[in-house]
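Fold Annotation — chain and its backbone
Next Lines — sequence and tokenised fold

***
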Amino acid sequence: MKFFILSGSHRAEAQSLKVANYLKSVLLAEHTGASVFLYSLSGNPLPLWDEASGGAPDALWDPISAGLKAADALVVVTPEWSGMATPGVKNFLLNCTADEVGHKPGLIVTVSASRGGSYPVAELRMSGYKNNRLCWLPEHLIVQHVEGSMTLPDGGAGLSKEDTVIRLRARYDLRLLAEYAKALAVVRASGVVDHRTFRNGM
């Protein structure tokens, strides 16, 4: 099974990237033969999408597009900035097409330095999927107090109760994501999906 993880923080020293790398390690450990394409916006934001340009230039987007097309499921990690998902995450989703991510499951993972993280979940559930047809899971993951989370090895001494709980929840969400990936592969192969006639969502 193939997974695509987006680490959506633009910051050079991004806690979101730490979380993304942890999730990658879990996927590789728990799914034999799995591969993970991790793309980070840390210090590497894409050019802003607009209709005239059609999005990021091919030289930049083509490797990303190939990773998205090959993926069975996606994980989108975003910090909460002023109660919002990052501009980079929204810009990334604008670049995505239905041919790349349509009718594939996506897990929303948000990151907060304190007790936040819920607003980007609501924002991404409301938007970011309309034309590209990405299917957000009904489950999501919120990593609060992120600087103290997912730093120590699993099972090691010094893990807090909160960190242990969020790691267990992360494993559950990723196992569920893999099952949705199997189920939605059947939908994509059914012949019912018609992005040519119904190019845009309503």
